[in-house]
Amino acid sequence: MIGVQLAQQLREAGLTWKPAIGDRFAIPDRDLDEEVFVLSNMTIEVYSMPEGRVIGFNGTTEWAMDDVELDETVWLPREDQLRELLGGTFRSLARGPAGYEVRIDLLGEERSFAGENVEQAYAAALLHLLAAAGAA
After folding, report:
1. Is the dihedral of CA 14, 56, 122, 97 positive or negative?
2. 1 vs 45, more confident
3. What is the pLDDT, as a whole number, of residue 74?
4. Do the Cβ atoms of 94 and 112 come closer than 8 Å?
5. Which of 122, 130, 134, 27 lies closest to 81 in space, CA to CA?
6. Tens digit of pLDDT for each residue in 16-57?
7. Backbone phi, then psi, for 85, in 5-degree steps?
8. Is it the case that residue 136 has pLDDT exceeding 90?
């Protein structure tokens, strides 16, 4: 899993989240940075309210929290989601000296990105793609 800091870098680089059942997220800056939440159709759902989209915590007793605005959360994309976001640029995933390496091809130039785990390697490659898209 990627950490909150890397997830925030992805968001700042332009990655947008369209919440779906099964998505993981964190709520930074509320002493909950180490907690991972999962959207579920039973306990945690996204609601459209007049003031905007919120994530509602239904029936939770652990925290005094009914809902949190979507922009106060940070998406922690899974391996499959990160790979899908790489789209047609993705070439391969292999074990490397630093953990894992993801290879992408961007406009005919092949690049490799390393991470301690698979998701970190995918995220590093995605950060590169987002930066390239922002520079275009």
Report:
1. positive
2. 1
3. 95
4. no
5. 122
6. 999 998 999 999 987 777 889 888 776 677 888 888 888 887
7. -65, -25
8. no
Which H or E run includes 106? strand 99-106
Enter the pTM of the model: 0.81
> From the centroid of its chain, how far is CA 133?
18
- Is residue 34 helix, strand or coil? strand
Question: Measured between alpha carbons, how far is 67 from 46 in angstroms, rounded to an integer?
Answer: 9
**Cβ neighbours of 60 (radius 10 Å):** 13
Q: Which residues contact 13 (CB under 8 A, 6 or more apart)?
A: 127, 130, 131, 134
- Between the CA atoms of 114, 21, 33 and 63, what dihedral angle is there, to the nearest 10 degrees? -170
User: What's the residue count for the chain?
Assistant: 136
How many H helices and E strands in the chain?
A: 3, 9
User: The tokens of 70 are what?
Assistant: 């979507």
